[in-house]
Structure formats: C-alpha cells, structure tokens
Amino acid sequence: MTDTRLPERGVVFWPVGSGDSTTVVVDEEHVLQVDLRDMTAADQEDALVAPVVDRLVENLPTRDGEPYLAGFALTHGDADHCTGFADLLDRVHIGELWATPRLWREYLEDDVELCEDAKAFQAEAERRVAATLEADRAGREPASGDRVRIIGYDIDRDQHPYAELPDTYFTYPGKSITTLDGEDVSAAFEAFVHAPFKDDCAAARNDTSLAMQLTLRDADGAAGYLLLFGDLGYDTIRKIFDYSAPRRPERLAWDVILAAHHCSKKVMYTTSETGVEELRQDLLDDFEAHACDGARVVASSLPIPVVDRPGANPPHAKAKARYEEIVADPVLCTAEYPSVEDPRPIVFGLVAGEGLALVPVEDLADSDVDRAALVGSRSGSELLKTLGLTAAVEVREDTAVPATPPSGSDGEEPGSGLDRGRQAVQAARGDTAAPVTPVGFGAT
Amino acid sequence: MATAGGRSAGQQQALEQLGQVAAESAGAVEILRVEPPDGVGWLAVELSLDCTGVTQAPGGLRLRPRERVTVQIPDDFPFRLPAVAVPHRRFAGAPHVQWGRRLCLYQAPATGWAPADGMFGFLERLLEWYERAAAGALDTPGQPLHPPVAYPSREAGCLVVHADAPRAADSPWLGVAVLCQAEPGRVDVVGWLELGGAWPVDVPAAQELADRLHPVSGREGGPGVVFLAVTVVLPEPITFEFPSTAAALAHAMAAQGLPSELFLGLLGLVAQANEPLADQLPATGQTDSDLVNGDGPDGQDVRLTLPLYVLVGSPARGIAGQPDRITHLAAWRLPALGEQIMSMLPLRHSTDPDLARIGQRVMELAQDWLGLEKTAWATVYEQRPELVTRRDQASPAAWLQNRRVLILGAGALGAPIAADCVRAGARQVTVVDNSTVHPGILVRQPYENGDIGKPKAAVLAKRLARIRPEATVTSQVGDVLATVLGEHASIPDADLIVDATANPMVATKLELRRWPARDRWPPVCTVIIGHRAELGLATLSLPGATGAGADLLRRVGLAVRTDPAARLSDLADDLFPHPPRTEVFQPEPGCSQPTFVGSASQVAALAGQLFTGTLATLAGHADGRPVAPMSAFVARLGADPDQAPLPPTRLDWPDDLTSLDPASGYEVRIAAGALAELRTEARRGARLRGRKVETGGLLLGQIDDACRVIWVSAASGPPPDSRLSAQHFEHGIQGVEDLIAHHDQATAGAVRFVGLWHSHPDGPAAPSPTDRQGMVDLLVPVARAPRRALLAIVGGPPPRWSAWLEADTPPEVFVRLLARTSTTQGGRLPPRAGQEQPGPWWPGGYALGGPRTQAEQASSARGGPLGWWRRARRGWMRHRLPVGGDRPPPDARQSGLAAGRTDRKAEGP
Fold it and tell me: Which of B867, B852, B839, B856 minimizes the C-alpha distance to B720?
C-alpha cells in the first residue's frame, strides 16, 4: 500500500446533486456538518449521489457507542440543504445545532412551504432552545445533544422563545465561533460569521443564508480557509465584501470557496430593470483579491452544462466560467469529480504552507484501509480518508447512471479550449483559412 | 447587447464577427462586456477564453482555466488593428507583453494582418498567442528575439548607435560611450571606452577620438559636440520591459553585481569627465539647442553643461534557442537636477575634509534622488553592424559597399546613380560635371529651385554627403574631357567609372585613354537613354577587356543591325537610327543642347534598371561567375499598354585579338567573328590545297582616328580569281565590290573595307620580300582605293600554327596600316588572268580538286563569283553574336560564338 497519510484536518464536499453537504473534520473527535442533502432519502433527479447519512453513521467518531457529530449548521431551510436531517438526527448524536432566526420566522408564516426535514430541524432547534433555557434556569450547562446556537439577528425575535436564550448562545455577523458542542476547539477551528445581516432578515430565504469563513489550524501554525455563502446572491455577498474588505480583509481570505447557490450566476450577474443581464466584475475581482495561492472553487451541484439554457436553474456555465477566470485551476464540481461517471467526495486537507489542499483521488483510492477495523477509533486523517473512500465504493449501487453524459459533447473531445475557440472561428468564418490576400508585402 | 449608438460601421462589423464566433464556440470564446466607444473612438470588448486543456510547459505562462482579455477596436477597423490588453499583470515580463498588460500579436502587421479576415483572423492570432504563451514558445527557436522594451519619452531625445556594443562576461562591463551630437535632437554613439582606460581630457582629444572612431568626412563641422555617457552592460537580461524608475533600475543592477553606490560613483566620474568637454558649448545659456542642460530663464547667463546619459546594456538580442546574445541597449537621459547632483559627487574624494563631507552628503542625496526618479528612456535607433542587416544585402547593389565610384555627368542618369551609390554604402563617390543647374532640368533631375545657377556637381555632392556623412562625396566642376580624361590625367583611382554624360566625345576619349592601359583601368560603364526615354542602354567593360565607351557602343550598333531575329529593332531605331535622326529635341530654342524627351519617372526608372543590370554583372564577376569581359544591358520601360513589353536584353562579347601597329600607333582589334573567318579559311585551305599553300582575303571594319583603333569586324576568304600557292597569295577582285557593298549597307557604314590578310602557314607572321613590295605598291582590290589599308599576316611556327587550326589558340599576327605616300603609288589590283606563275597554284573561291594550271582556270565550273560572294556573306553573318532572350548556356557563350558553332554543325564543314 502507499503510505499516504492524509492531513489531520480537512473538509469533504459530497456529491449530492445540486445541493450542499459539507463535512468539516476539525479533529478525531470533532466533526461539523454544514447542510445536508442525502438523496437516498429524497429520490429525485438523475444524479449520482452519495448516501451521506449512511456514511456518516458508519464513520463518525463515537461517544457512548453512538456516532457523534459535534455540530450541525444549517445555512438556510431549503430542501437542498437539509434533506435527510430527520434521518441523521435519528441515527447520530448531534452535539450542537447552528440555526438562523429565519426558520422561526418562516415557521410563523402561512404561505411559506417548508420541507419535512426543515420542519424537523426547526422542531429540534425549538426543543433545544427549551432544553437550554431549562438548563440555564437550573444553573447548569446544557448537555451535549441539547445545545443550540442562534446565528444572526431578527427583528421579530421577540415573538420566539429563543429570544430568551442568554447571549452566549447567540453569534452575530462579525463574530467568531471557536467552540463546538461546548468544547473549546479554538486551537484548530474558527467560524467567522459574515451573514445573515439583520437588515436582510425579511428578505427572500436565499438572501438570509448563513455565510461564514471557516478556518482550520494546525499546531504548527498552518491555516486553511473555507468561504461558505449558502445560497446568497450578488447583493448580499457584495455587502459582505464592502463591510469586511476594508476592516478585516483576513476574514475574507480563502483557500476554498463553495460556489454560492450551487454555482449560480446570480453571484456575479444581476438583472437590470430592463431585463438586461449585467456582469458584476467587481465582486469577482474581490474574490480574486482575497484568494490565497492555489485557491480552488467547489461547485456542489449537478454537472455544469457547457452552455446555459435561458432561465435554467443552477448550476450555470457562466458562473463556472467567471470563477475560472479568477483562479489558476478549474472549478471542481461535486458531480464531475473526478469523472461524471464515477463522482467521489472532494476532499481537502490542511497542509502546512498550502492551506486547504485538494487530496488527490489516488491518495484515497490506493488505500487498503481496513474500514471495519477502524470503526469507532480513528484519527482525523483516517476519518478524512474513510469519508473519501466510502462514497467511492458505494455510490453507484444506490443511484442510477445518467443515460448520457451531461456535458453535451458527442464523445469526441476537440482538444483544448483554445482549439475549440479556433474551431468556432473557422465555423463562423466558414473556412479554415483567412481569405487570400492579394499582395504579400515582402513576406518573411 | 446595448444599442449601436456611437459605433462605427467597422466596429459594428467587428462585433458581429465576434458574436458569430461566440455563438459557435459553446462557451470557448465568450463576450463578457461591450463598452460604448471611448473619447477617441475605441470600443472595448471584454472576452473570456477557455484555456482548459492547453499544454503547459515549465517555462510558459501559467494560464487560468479561463482568461479574460480586452480587445480595443478602433473606429476605423479593419484598417487599423485592434489592441489587446489583459486586466492583470500576471503576464508582465513575458516576451511580447508591453506595458505589463498589452499583448503584441503582430510583429509585422503589414504581413500578418488581413483586413478582409477581420476579427476572425484576429481571434486566431489571439488564441495562438495564448497557446504559445502557455508552451513558453512566444519566442520560437530560430526566430529573432523581440528585444526588450524601454518605453521612450520624448524629452529624452534619441540615440543612433553606430559602434558594436561591448558584452559583459561574468560581471557588469563598466565604461563610457563616446557620443557625438551633430544633428539637433539626436546623439550618435560612435564608440566605447572601458573604465580605467584613457578617456579624452579636453576638447581636441575628444574630437580626435570621435574622428578616429567614426570618420564623417562628408559632414561639415566634423563629429559635432563630443562627450561621454555612462555605460553599464549587465551579464544577464533584466526584464522584457526596462524599469520605469531609477530605483528599479538600480535594484536590477545591484542584483547583477553593481551596487548603487558604485553606479552613482560612475555617474559622478563621467559627469566630471564631461566638464572640460562643455567648452564645446556656446558660452551662455542663450541657446535653443536641446543638447544642453542648464538653460537659464529669460536668457540669463547660466553655465551650460553637457547632458548625462546612462546606457544600459543587457544580453537580449539574438535568435531564440541560440546561446549567443548581442547586447541590447537602452539609454536613460538624466534630468538637469540629476546631472547636477552627479557632477558634485566627486567632491567626496576631496582632500579637504569639509568638501569630502559635503561630497558624502551629496552621495546620500543622490541615493535618495535615485529612489524617487523615473527613468526617461531615449529612443534608440540601431545602426550597429553586429545587429543591423542591410536592406539591400542580397541585391546587386551590395557590390557597391565600400567601393569608390567615379561618376561622369550629374544629369538625368548620373545624379540618381550617384545617389544610389551613396545609399548602397560606397566609400567614396566623385561626381564630375561642368554644367550648372538651370530651370528646365528640374523637370526630371534631382535638383531644387535654390540650386539654379549653381554647378550641378557641387550641389549634388553636398546633398549626397548628407545622406551618409561616413561616405566621402566629392565633386569636380569641369569638363570631363579636359579633367578626368585629360591628356595628362592619371588612371582614375576608383572601383567603377560610370559615364553618364551621354556625350559621344566622352565615350570616344574614354576609349582612347583607356586601351593603352586597359588592364589597369577599373570597370567602365556607359549609360545612355533613348530619345523618348522609353529605353536605355548600359555597357560594361571589365578591367582588361578589349574596349569600352565608343568601342562598346559600336559593338552594340553592329549587333542591333545584324540580329537576324530583329529583337533589338527598337534599340536600333532609337539609338542607332539610319539615316540619323534629323529632328532633334531642343528644349530651349537656340543653341541649347539637344536632349531626349522624358519625365522624371521615366528617367528614374531607366537609371535604376540600367544601374541594377550593370551591378548584377559586376556582382557576378566578383562572385567568380563566368562573366563576359564586355557586355551591354538594354532596359525598356514597356509602358505602352498596346504592346507586349519586351524583356531586358543582355549582350556580351569576348575579347578581340588585339595587335599594336607600332608604326601608326593604332591598335588593330580582330573581332572573334572575323578571326574565326580567317581560321575557317585557313583550315579549309589546308584541307583542300595542302597545308603549305597560303590563303587570304579581305578585312572589313573601321579605322577610327579619334580612338586610334582599327576594328576588324569581318573577313573573307580569297575571291575566285585569286591565285594561291605555297609561295605566294595573289588577291583576286571578283565579287569583292559586291561583298563590301553588302557589309556597308547592312551595318550603315560601320563595316567597310579596311585591308587584306593572308596566311603564312608554319611561317613567321612577318612580311616576305614579296609582301614588302606589295606594301609599297599598296594595291587593293577595290575600285575607289582608300588612302590607307591594313595589311595583316597570320602565321606562326608549326606548333603554333597547328594549335590555331586545331585548337583555336591565337596565331601570330602581323599588322601594318599602310598609307599612300609620295613613294607609294596605290591603286586597284590588276585582274589576274593571263599572268604566269611558277609551280602549281590554286584558284580562290570554293573550288575543290587538285592544283590547276593556267589553262584550267577558265573552265572552272565552281566557285564562280556569285557563289563565292554568297558564301562569304553567310560566313560573316553567322558570326554575329546571339542576341535576345534565347541565350546559349554560359560555357558556350564564353567565346561568344555559340550561334556560329551551331550553324557550322548544321551546315557541315
């Protein structure tokens, strides 16, 4: 076997179609799940997806014999961010929930459709608020499994019980979280909250997404940065940069950015009042300005089309193209990595000098780790490896392979992008060569 | 996409083409943004190119998966190229990237840019640029490297570098450039002096040095103001773009082993060395010279100082893939303040501690100043031999490089040819002409209104010297006949003489002066143009060739009349009309010189063609190719749209067999054709009548008392009534008059009776006693006996005689021009019939069979007068030279008799 030891900390992006499911391995005990989309629980779309809940149950560290997830953060209540939560809650001990006030607001609104898993999350959060209040009244810390953290501020908070929680259970934009499930993990982890903004609390659901910069640190000082913007669009992200870039640019640094809203072009295009789509290069320039060397963009989505159809949902080819202009390497799409036919989780590890670095698929595949023997007691490194592996061996049994590759090509690859550009020139001109010039002025 | 507001039609077309490509590309080429035209009409289009899958070489630019690029489309697209820039500095420093962001797609837009292909071709170029950038192949092996770019500023002026630049080995080369300013706004670099070597200490030394390094004899005032410039040649390239700040430049130098203190020290040293040289400048600040620093306001008296330049070299010129790199030069002109600071730097070496302290303080100031100053790069024009390839390198004009040319006549042909010589790099050009500029010639000669009344030669020489001060251009105002060709003039010291006087007397005197020393004369070219400037003729004689000038013009005249295909009839009608043209063009009625009718364009075209044709022959000769000693080149404008243009024609001739008649001092020139006639007759005689039997015949040509030359252009065998024996040759008279008349007519009088020849087989080419008697009698076979006649005897001892007959090596020849005197009677040869002769004899003509007796002679059926005449004429004709396009291969042409040979083969012996 190859002795490729993975880093101790890292991030796993699961292939779950157009939805988010991000697992942050802080250390061998602490794992944070940001959003969830377990497609086995919601059989839709022709996607090759990973059974995230099953794999988490199999591989998470255990406490008291139970799979243990230190925290679960829900950026917002859309189904593509929380599908399978009820199943997860059943099967895994979740130490702490991170919730935004938005869920409570929506719970009160009649015309808002919430999916079952969102309702389950809301109910669980509600339960934990009650449990925490009770513990607080009893003068003790809430127990693991009862913990909840409210991120962001809503002007209607007084209508909800969570408003009574002590301040320590709230985090507002501009603040950091360095504990998980009540345990101090500041040496290895920090979540800096950028959004939701108070002013947006009544805006459309996507615009109230939780946005964070997650930092992973090693004892030797190596740090890696992940920017998560949920389903935010241009306006809110613009606001984040406008606010933080001059004051705390380090909070915008990134090794990995999860392309917001499953690689939506709404991040860098806006529509004018006359219906004209306008490119907002300013935000892309800001992304680029805060990118670390070797930064990567991850699109958690279905395969990205070659050309956008009008009005189509994300992922958008245009968004991918714009991201690819600001980084040195291609966008990584969870449905295409490493291939459309056989997607695997995208694993980043924290590497000294590089920050969060992509773990090559080979480093996962070449392992002959005895997964059974590792259950229950493993390092962060082994955890990353097994999470990466599980999808690789199991995913195809659960889902159907799409009939045709979604790239839209006829199977014959025309070479590089520049070659395709050249072919387009020739197609537009109608000839392979320029028209003959009548006179050569002493050519050569 | 927004409205078409403000876009030109060309921009609209460019956008449509871009849109078509984008639509076909499935995202490979994406239009991100189209901005309205800016204030000066440029339309910016931002594109995104898919660069995934591009081969990335280690030395190449690292491309992103997609690259953004802004194309600026001018309003007069496609007649001006779009400009391309990238919105980042990631490519800065790469070859063909300027100003850090601009991509250089077209090194030579004239050849690379196809307006008809518009944005299609442009995009292909752009895509290729990215491909090559990624592959690190923007400089492909074998291609000349694009030199680094130093963005010039106007105030820094310009430099012309004449001297090959030093190269650095492992450490920087330090020294000075020797600069001359002779022209306003420009400085010439004429040489280099290393640090530690001897630098000029005063003005005379500086002037002498500049004169020695780069002589400019053609410039009034010599080398101009001479001074020194700091020069640093670095061992490694800096960047593709030269630094725009002094601090960056100093940093780059420091990185290559030249600390800024040392650099500043060198600046101070040079500023100090320039101080005594400032004596060359005017005394006060009242000057509009751009050279000086220190102009005071309002004309105040300010001591002027010389500017301080820093020349920075780096090994950057060469061929990609080859290690040898020539130094690339950039020049930074320090502003006045910098120059003043530098001039005070040497104070720190003062023995006075106070002064030294000030000097040290100045050094600190200089360091500060260096950190703030922007580099003002001068425009550098290269004229270094190591770098610049002459544009006429592979043309015939390359022959002229470093040659000395004497040009006779500064008119319609002479003046442009003289200019051509100067431009082509001639070392010395001398123009001789005795006329002055008058208004009429401005129509077609390169003179100006202000030149009227001045001598042409002087005006022309002065103007030509300005083209290349390195060339020595001199003039002689005077009559060519009396000066260059004067009685006591020595052989012209030149590498080429061009007679452009169009004066027959010059052509004649040239021939007279040349032939006695023909081996020591340089090539001689005579150029003339026809009376309507539709064709022109250039003749060329190489050193040692039989004739030049009038001789060659005569040969051309013969050739044009006797060309059976009449391919030179235009030349004949134009330059050799018969009867001579009576209507002549006199531009100014009265006594003005007749001249041709023609325009400046015609004259320039013909001058160029004629001179190029001549130079091609000279270049061929210099290259060792077989070139005839005498040749002519006919150029035709072919401007008549109703007539198919005739190609240029080349004629050439082998040398004649020349023999001096010591008695008269005339040279006899037996043309190759005539000599071949003699040989044919001698061979036939030997075969038919026996080797020992003499033969002979007529000599036809021309006696020229001006040139003192006798041309034998044709010859014949013995007329039928001749008597031939081993002891004696008696010339007959039958048919002779007819033959002579034929030649006279065919050549417009250029070939007439000049004398008689006979052979002395195996004997000396010297007159026998009988010959001597005949010379005294001077009897000739023509009715109107001329005053003079040429006697020629061909002979030679057995080996030489045999060699002539069998191998065509020249025989011995005796020539004598005989003239009637009081002691000679002269007259016509008497008829032969009835005279007794001892021993066997043969008749002339073409009779076959054995020897005859007198009785047999009358019954001779063959060789009658008519048959002999025809045969003789045909023999002469077939020795005319081939003309026109269907030239024989060079080896055959060497003798000039190729056509004759062919004929002989066809006819049989």
Answer: B867
| In the block, residue with structure tokens 């076909």 | B24
Question: Would an 8 Å CB–CB cutoff place A373 in contact with chain B?
Answer: no
Q: Does the distance separating the beta carbons of A425 and B65 come in below 8 Å?
A: no
Q: Do A421 and B48 make contact, defined as CB atoms within 8 angstroms?
A: no
pLDDT digits (tens, 9 = 90+) for A299-334: 999 999 999 999 899 999 999 999 999 999 999 999
A325:B21 CB<8 A: no
Say how far apart CA A373 and CA B779 lie, in whole Å. 140
The values of phi and psi at residue A61, to 5°, are -60, 160
> Which member of A276, A307, A328 has the closest CB to residue B26?
A307
Query: Which residues are CB-contacts of A254 (< 8 A; sequence separation ≥ 6)?
Result: A213, A225, A226, A227, A287, A290, A291, A292, A295
The ipTM value here is 0.87
Cis peptide before A338 (omega within 30 of 0): yes
- Check if A425 contacts B (Cβ < 8 Å): yes
SS3 A191: strand
Cβ-Cβ contacts under 8 Å, B123 against chain A: 421, 425
d(CA A101, CA A106) in angstroms, rounded, equals: 9
Contact B111 A329 (CB under 8 A): no
DSSP structural state of residue B35: P
Q: Which long-range contacts (CB under 8 A, 24 or more apart) does B475-481 make?
A: B475/B410, B475/B430, B475/B431, B475/B432, B475/B433, B476/B430, B476/B431, B476/B432, B476/B433, B477/B433, B477/B434, B478/B432, B478/B434, B479/B434, B480/B408, B480/B409, B480/B432, B480/B433, B480/B434, B480/B506, B481/B505, B481/B506, B481/B509
pLDDT in tens, A76-117: 989 889 999 999 999 999 999 999 998 888 877 777 788 999
Contact A19, A58 (CB under 8 A): no
Q: Does the CB of A422 have a partner CB in chain B at under 8 Å?
A: yes
Spatial contact of B135 and B55, defined as CB atoms under 8 Å apart: yes
The CA distances from residue A385 to A195, A220, A359, A361, in Å, are: 32, 22, 9, 10
**Cα–Cα distance between B786 and B779 in angstroms, integer?**
10
